[in-house]
Amino acid sequence: MSKTTLPETPSVNLIGNGTDIIGDITSNGDLRIDGSLKGTIKSSGKVVVGSTGRVEGEIICQNADLSGEVKAHLKVNELLSLKANAVVTGDIITNKLAIEPGAVFTGACTM
Fold it and tell me: Which of 83, 81, 85, 58 is nearest to 71 (CA)?
């Protein structure tokens, strides 16, 4: 009898509104933050910070959509999108950057 292996599907992780985390997160899947995180996020997927989300520390990922408050050093390998109500403070290293009208960005950007 042969063993069938299921293909690995990337997971989607959620930090909900009202949840506060102090520490580092490493994930192979996508991550959505609607709560608060102080620490480092390393993801081989997409990181989404919702409008109620707050991140302080460092974000290293493939893609990112930011809508909340972020005080971090960001290293995004592909596309970083700052949505209209995003407030970002810190330095950015990315390949592509999209900033919607209304977003606030304070820092340096290297592309």
Answer: 58
d(CA 78, CA 92): 12
Structure-token pair, residue 28? 């192979």
Residues of the chain above pLDDT 70, percent? 91
* Token output for 89: 């403070």
Computed on alpha carbons and rounded to an integer, the radius of gyration of the chain in Å comes to 15
Band of residue 1 on the pLDDT scale cut at 50, 70, 90: low
Residue 42 exposed, middle or buried by CB count within 10 Å (0-12, 13-18, 19+): middle
Q: Would you give the DSSP letter of residue 4?
A: P
Q: Are 74 and 96 in contact (CB under 8 A)?
A: no
The pTM (predicted TM-score) of the whole model is 0.88
Q: Find out whether 103 and 83 touch, Cβ atoms under 8 Å.
A: yes
